[in-house]
Automatic annotation (TrEMBL):
Belongs to the FGGY kinase family. It comes from Peptidiphaga gingivicola. Keywords: Kinase, Transferase. Residues 5-248 form the Carbohydrate kinase FGGY N-terminal domain. This is Carbohydrate kinase.
Length: 536
């Protein structure tokens, strides 16, 4: 009988389950789109029951595909942050307000002015933004007190999935770092911080903290019937998605770093302790491995920018391969067109915090083409990531993952912009792979994450910078920063106009999005375009 391990990745716009053999080869996979509901006031919500149904569907499909194999364990990861509240019976009290939610923008400003933001930073290592649990919980408690009063637990996405699989209410150190965990001592939730924020009631909702590779919990009979996974199968603890990807990429030791481009961006590096932190503008997660922390920046300038321009330019009928070919015709620098990729309803959180940030183009003229506009979006997303690399003092080679980096063009632009070699895992699903690594340790199949990660590892593809493009991009980056500084003066006014216009009465003010095929499911790389790669 062949052994397999399943990694489940609860992404923002799609969930997936991937089965790996114990040599790291993908044996089966399935994904399902999950809707996100956006509101006129910055709301970004998801139906928790629908998300679970999508996960169950993925697991049923994968279990059927690997019938005859022994499932050693199930690993979990998922989107982080937001407010995910369930009652005593385990039912959601309201839709999950996810990490993109921007309705608490004014509270973020207030917290940063009155010192509460600094208090959160000092204890948890996290800068306050609209989708962070403490500030968003306060917003929801004020707006919907009856619903929030029914809650008995806050279970982030992967913790909600584990609860549905096992009945266990628990979390890990990476998720706990986003609430009230003291990341310096990792001794538990910091009660004085919750009291200082006036959120002692919220503290009561937080579940037990476990090590990411800690003891597994068994699948229940009810969950087995829903998913096709045998009852008793070990389910691991797991990590938040941005952290677990490091496990899938083999980035585990202090000093290792990696980038992710999905619905959000991510630039992070592992450090031996929070004392080694490199920027006050970053966020920090305790990993559960002694005092080790993951310092990172998570710009909200991810692949939704590409989905948006695809739709805006009327290119939905074209594949990402064809779209990438069009973008290549513009050439480096996009003929002087610069795009500010701040399209998230929640504004921006890295490498600067501005809840009013919004997207725009600069440098357009009557001679600008669709290709110029399109390529400028690719370049703007990369400029944002490169700015975070500089802030965290990360140098190459740059290891990348995520749906966006399936695009050869994005990898090439990143190499040219940073003048560094870029390495991309040639097998997809680093997040699910990392979740599977932790599950193998939790199930007792491997003694530690180093050996499990080595067993499930995959080869890397290489993209080297083109010397002819480095100078062009150094000029374009200066223009990018200058354009942003000019635009920031009107962001607050524009956000207020956008909000008031939405309230004025359009049925389109709230839209249900079925998800970013680019970010979570569809291959964004061009299978027909010869990539510029070097031998590893």
């Amino acid at each position: 009988m062949n052994d397999v391990v399943i990694g489940v990745d609860g992404g923002t716009t799609a969930v997936k389950a991937v089965a790996f053999d114990l040599n790291g080869q993908i044996k089966a996979s399935h994904h399902e789109s999950v809707p996100v509901r956006y509101g006129a006031n910055g709301e970004s919500e998801q139906d928790m029951a629908l998300l679970w149904e999508a996960v169950a569907s993925c697991l049923r499909s994968v279990a059927e595909q690997v019938r005859g194999s022994r499932i050693v364990g199930v690993g979990l990861t998922g989107q982080g942050d937001g407010v995910w509240l369930v009652d005593a019976d385990g039912e959601p009290v309201r839709p999950a307000a996810n990490w993109m939610d921007g309705r608490a923008a004014d509270r973020v400003d207030d917290w940063n002015l009155d010192g509460r933001g600094r208090a959160v930073l000092d204890v948890t290592g996290t800068t306050v933004f609209g989708g962070l649990f403490p500030v968003l919980y306060e917003e929801l408690a004020a707006a919907e007190p009856e619903a929030v009063a029914r809650a008995t637990s806050h279970l982030n996405c992967k913790d909600w999935i584990r609860f549905k699989l096992t009945g266990v209410r628990a979390t890990d150190f990476t998720e706990a770092s986003r609430t009230f965990l003291d990341v310096a001592t990792t001794s538990g939730y910091n009660e004085p911080l919750a009291e200082k924020l006036g959120l002692s009631e919220a503290l009561k909702l937080l579940p037990e903290i476990r090590r990411p590779a800690g003891k597994a919990s068994p699948v229940t009979e009810e969950a087995a019937e829903a998913t096709g996974i045998p009852a008793g199968t070990p389910v691991g603890v797991g990590m938040i998605d941005v952290a677990v990807t490091g496990m899938g990429l083999g980035r585990i030791a202090d000093g290792d770093s990696w980038l992710i481009l999905g619905t959000t961006g991510f630039v992070g590096t592992l450090l031996p302790s929070v004392a080694e932190r490199r920027s006050d503008l970053s966020m920090v997660l305790a990993t559960g491995e002694g005092t080790q922390v993951l310092e990172f920046m998570a710009p909200m300038t991810g692949t939704p920018n590409l989905d948006w321009i695809r739709s805006t330019l009327g290119l939905e009928a074209q594949s990402w391969s064809e779209i990438e070919k069009m973008a290549r015709t513009a050439g480096p620098g996009s003929h002087g067109v610069v795009y500010l990729p701040y399209a998230s309803p929640g504004g921006e959180r890295a490498p600067f915090l501005d809840t009013n940030a919004s997207a725009s183009w600069q440098g357009m003229s009557l001679t600008s083409t669709r290709a110029d506009i399109l390529r400028a979006v690719y370049e703007g997303v990369v400029f944002s990531l490169a700015e975070c690399l500089n802030a965290l003092r990360i140098t190459g080679p740059i290891v990348v993952s995520g749906g966006g980096f399936r695009s050869d063009l994005l990898c090439e632009i990143l190499a040219d912009v940073t003048a560094q070699r870029v390495l991309r895992q040639d097998a997809p699903e680093a997040g699910a792979r990392g979740a599977a690594v932790l599950a193998l340790v939790s199930a007792g199949a491997f003694p530690d994450v180093f050996s499990a990660s080595s067993a499930l590892g995959a080869a890397l593809e290489t993209f080297d910078p083109n010397p002819d493009n480095i100078h062009i991009y150094s000029q374009a980056r200066v223009a990018f920063y200058d354009a942003r500084e000019g635009a920031r003066r009107c962001w607050r006014t524009l956000r207020k106009l956008r909000s008031s216009t939405g309230k004025a009465g359009s049925e389109n003010a709230e839209a249900e999005e079925t998800g970013s095929e680019n970010a979570e499911a569809e291959e964004t790389g061009s299978e027909n375009v010869k990539p510029r790669k070097a031998e590893s």
